[in-house]
Amino acid sequence: MTADQLKDIIAAGLACDHITLEGDGRHWYATIVSVEFEGKRAIQRHQRVYATLGAKLATDEVHALSMKTFTPAEWAAQGQ
């Protein structure tokens, strides 16, 4: 799987303002900004992203996804 493919899958299931992905095809690191993260704790945000991947995780197409998740306001406060 490519970074663009993974980005498309996440963006199709989650309204994202920003997504960056780095990885080797199975192990990924993501930064994701979404208004849908408002009022959610980190674990709830991660579960929301994992839900977009569904079978890709179950079939090991995506072996590992490490992520930082931000609301648009949190992202702006980071200077982005």
Describe this structure in words.
With 80 residues, this protein is an alpha+beta fold. The protein has a single domain (3-74), classed as 2-Layer Sandwich (GMP Synthetase, Chain A, domain 3), CATH 3.30.300.90. Helix content is 41%, strand content 25%. It has a three-stranded mixed beta sheet with strand order 1-2-3. Strand 1 (18-23) and strand 2 form a beta hairpin. The longest helix is centred in the middle third of the chain and has 12 residues, at 42-53. The radius of gyration is 12 Å and the shape is globular.
In short:
The chain is an alpha+beta fold and 80 residues long.
Q: Per CATH, which architecture?
A: 2-Layer Sandwich
Give the mean pLDDT. 93
Number of domains: 1
CATH superfamily: BolA-like
Oligomer: single chain
Number of helices: 4
Low-confidence stretches: none
Main sheet summary? 3 strands, mixed
Coarse shape: globular
What is the name of the CATH topology?
GMP Synthetase, Chain A, domain 3
The percent of residues in helical segments reads: 40-55%
Series of secondary-structure elements, N-terminal to C-terminal: HEEHHEH
Content of β-strand: 25-35%
Instruction: Please report the distance between the alpha carbons of the first and last residues.
Output: 28 Å
